[in-house]
Design a protein that fits this description.
alpha/beta; 5-stranded mixed barrel; 14 helices
């Protein structure tokens, strides 16, 4: 536990990268891990066909590329050693990961920003921390064959454009659609407004798949229609969750907030600042549902919004009355009484209302009854 906490505190970006590369695993989904890391100052960058590998990587400010290799985070660069333990600890247990780090850490050079071999930086954000670059593996629907084709194409050097990407990867149309709709090809259409890039990229992908027919074709390359509508912010988030299970364009609750504020619904951050015993309403994605056999029928939910996570306690009587709604609704508004003890905040649920699962909430994955 100490080893995991140490890495998460001092090397939050490296730890997140390793955890994402170890998925599927653990208690929280990739979306929840990313949202929590962002709240703690970690920069997360989207999938980019000009910069991403298959696995998630790290990008340092000096241009150094940090890639995972054989269960550890290996830093590629003349002045950089290797960061260790995060993914190893995630896969084999925090205790074993910490022991592994203790045995091997002194033999490696320190990362930039540390104060010496084995010594942490002065604080969690007191070094020039790298950013996490999401890899192609985060795009749903890409299997082992797509991975092999992408890695083979990536080994041949940088892509020069969408037509080059389509030709060299030789992916089927379904995989290419997923990649374009995820925003991974936006770098090739940067002259377009951000909200239109995915649709322009998809247009160009389908055009490349169809082919121009050669110099004697009767139908030359068709221009992108000027009326092609841009994606709205909720549509961008919905596309992210549908294709990757996470979003860098805003949490689904962020788009619902203007409707919730007039109805007295608090953010998780604001709810935790209330007094013990206060009445409160909080809404969020249900990222976890638990009903242990030792809990005498009590159920426990975890709500996540754009500001944090909050635990909700459901009594057996209330659960029986609304069991279907509580267990099936991806977005819930819960009103009840706050219980605050030693800085631990719970909401004792008294009223449960299902919200429309827009902006990608329907595609978010929760950890239920495990």
């Amino acid at each position: 536990v100490y080893g995991s906490a140490y890495l998460r505190h001092y090397y939050a970006a490296e730890y997140l990268c390793a955890m994402l590369n170890a998925q599927p695993m653990g208690f929280y989904s990739a979306g929840t891990l990313v949202e929590d890391a962002k709240r703690h100052g970690v920069r997360v960058l989207g999938v980019d066909a000009t910069r991403s590998a298959w696995d998630h990587t790290l990008e340092c400010a000096d241009g150094t590329v940090v890639v995972p290799h054989d269960g550890v985070i290996a830093v590629h660069g003349a002045k950089h050693g290797a960061e260790h333990g995060a993914e190893h600890g995630a896969e084999h247990g925090a205790e074993h990961g910490a022991e592994h780090g203790a045995e091997h850490g002194a033999k490696r050079e320190p990362l930039p920003g540390t104060d010496g071999i084995g010594a942490p930086p002065k604080g969690p954000n007191k070094r020039n921390a790298p950013a996490v670059r999401l890899g192609f593996r985060s795009i749903r629907g890409l299997g082992s064959q797509a991975r092999a084709k992408l890695e083979r194409a990536l080994a041949g050097g940088a892509f020069t454009g969408i037509h080059d990407f389509v030709e060299r990867t030789a992916l089927d149309q379904r995989a290419l659609r997923f990649i374009a709709e995820s925003g991974a090809l936006d770098a090739f259409v940067q002259n377009e407004p951000y909200e239109r890039r995915r649709r322009i990229a998809l247009w160009r992908v389908l055009e490349a798949v169809r082919g121009t027919g050669g110099p004697l074709a009767l139908f030359p390359e068709a221009p992108v229609p000027a009326g092609l509508p841009p994606l709205s912010p909720p549509e961008l988030t919905e596309g992210d969750y549908r294709l990757t299970g996470l979003s860098l364009n805003g949490h689904p609750m962020r788009h619902l907030r203007p409707l919730l504020v007039p109805n007295g619904v608090l953010t998780v951050r604001d709810a935790t600042r209330q007094r013990d015993g206060a009445k409160a309403g909080v809404a969020g994605l249900v990222i976890c549902r638990q009903r242990p056999g030792t809990a005498k029928g009590f159920m426990f939910l975890t709500l996540e919004d754009e500001t944090g996570m909050l635990n909700v306690v459901v009594t057996p009587q209330r659960f029986e009355r609304q069991a279907l709604l509580i267990t099936r609704s991806p977005l819930l508004l819960v009103r009840g009484t706050l219980q605050i003890e030693q800085n631990v905040v719970n909401l004792r649920g008294e009223e449960f209302i299902a919200l429309g699962a827009g902006a990608g909430a329907a595609h978010a994955r929760s950890h239920d009854f495990h």
